[in-house]
Structures are given as C-alpha cells and as structure tokens.
Amino acid sequence: MLNFTDVTASPNERATDNIEMRVKPSDKERISRAAELTGVRLTTFVRASAAREAERVLQEHQTTTLSERDRRTLLEALDNPPPPPPTSAAQDAVRDYRSRIANAR
Fold first, then answer.
1. Fewer CB atoms inside 10 Å of the end CB: C or N, the chain?
2. Are 6 and 44 in contact (CB under 8 A)?
3. Are 23 and 31 in contact (CB under 8 A)?
4. Of the candidates 39, 41, 36, 43, which has an alpha carbon nearest to the alpha carbon of residue 21?
5. Is the CB of residue 47 less than 8 Å from the CB of residue 6?
6. What's the pLDDT tens digit per position in 55-85?
7. Measured in Å, how far apart are the chain's first and last C-alpha atoms?
8. Cβ-contact 51, 8 below 8 angstroms
9. Nearest to 31 by CA among 50, 58, 9
10. What is d(CA 56, CA 64) in angstroms, rounded to the nearest whole number?
11. Phi, psi (5° rounding) for residue 73?
C-alpha cells in the first residue's frame, strides 16, 4: 500500500488552506477509483499525490547531475585548485626585481 502520510509537514501543523480546482468527470472518476483501491479518502489521495509530486519536482530542481567526465573535472579542480592570481604588490615586486636584474648587466 502507498504511504499517504504527509512527512513534510510538522505534526502540529493543521491543514487550514484550500486549493480549489475543476477536473474533467473522467479524471475525477479515475482518481476516486484509485483512492478507493488504496483505502483512503479522495482528498487524502489527492493531497498526498500532489505533495509527493511537488517534492519530486523540487528535488529534481535542487539536484545537479554530472556526467562522469564533469564529475572527474570537478573533483580534480577541488583537489588541485588553480593558484590565486598574483596581488598587485607581488606584480610590483616582480617588475622591480626584473628591472634591477636587467640594470645589473
């Protein structure tokens, strides 16, 4: 049997909001039959099904799936990050050093 408990809500949270929608009679008949077969009320079936689908969509949009090549590239970059660019003080020191060496000849 499917799980029709709402695991995302706080146990103390009461259902106080409404969602209204119109459905085709054939859709309502199919949904009602499915609810009956699972042994739950129609509203429980619709609420749990919508919440489960919402959770799936949210999870899908919050998860990034990488190809094997991209995964290796990411791990390599994390293990061996590129060095930070030199600071302006470091660049000045290199220029000063090179000018002194060039002038020493």
1. C
2. no
3. yes
4. 43
5. yes
6. 999 999 999 999 999 999 999 999 999 999 9
7. 88
8. yes
9. 50
10. 14
11. -65, -45
CB 6 within 8 A of CB 43: no
pLDDT in tens, 40-57: 999 999 999 999 999 999
Closest CA to 77 of 66, 88, 63: 66
- Mean residue pLDDT across the chain: 89
In this structure, which amino acid lies at residue 93? A
Structure tokens at 66: 């990488």
Tokens of 8: 């995302």
| CATH code assigned to 1-10+18-82 | 1.20.5
Work out the burial of residue 40: count CB atoms within 10 Å of its CB; fewer than 13 is exposed, 13-18 middle, 19 or more buried: middle
**pTM reported for the whole predicted model:** 0.56
* The two three-digit tokens of residue 96, written as one number: 């000063």
The span from the CA of 7 to the CA of 54, in Å, is 13
